[in-house]
Amino acid sequence: MGVRDTQKQATRGRVLAAARDLFDAAGFEATTTRQIADRAGVAVGSVFTTFASKAEILSQVMVDRLEALYAELERVAPHLRGPTVDRLRSLMAIHYSFEMRRARLFVAYIAASYGWPLDGAVTPLGQNKRLQEMLGEQLRRGIEAGDVRPDADVPLFIEALLAAYFWNYRRVVQEGADAAALTAIMDRQLGLLFEGVAARP
The whole model's pTM is what? Predict the structure, then answer.
């Protein structure tokens, strides 16, 4: 990697770090590109030579942030024991614990994602393939173990689960809910959702 590429990567890293902190503190809409550039110590033009839009910056912030979470989940998931519904509860509890460390950032991501164009520059809400694969793997294990029906609509179950997961973040804004409160409601929701795929005696 040459000097120019090294400088570009350094600029990219500073922009992402600055944006992450500003989005978390002020929200996506209230944060301007100029504020990001000022905090990163770069020119506004440098931001736009690195990213096409503020939405792309937020999307990349979330992708980078989730890398550590998914590495941990991929390490833990194969070792989860117990009924399928409890393994799913464990995975979602880890998610809430992680995202609530920067709750405003994640809420900003959810809110902003509804207005993004599907142009390939951003990852649409709920389209994280790694998470979908992990949840799908737990359900496949459940089919093999006999506590999930073989004809279960796995993609639909995952879609409903993720819808509940994202919807619960309104409680952070409206009620000041913490990770424990979100996990508790998700545990109940999963119990209801799982009835739709559970093997019948």
Answer: 0.84
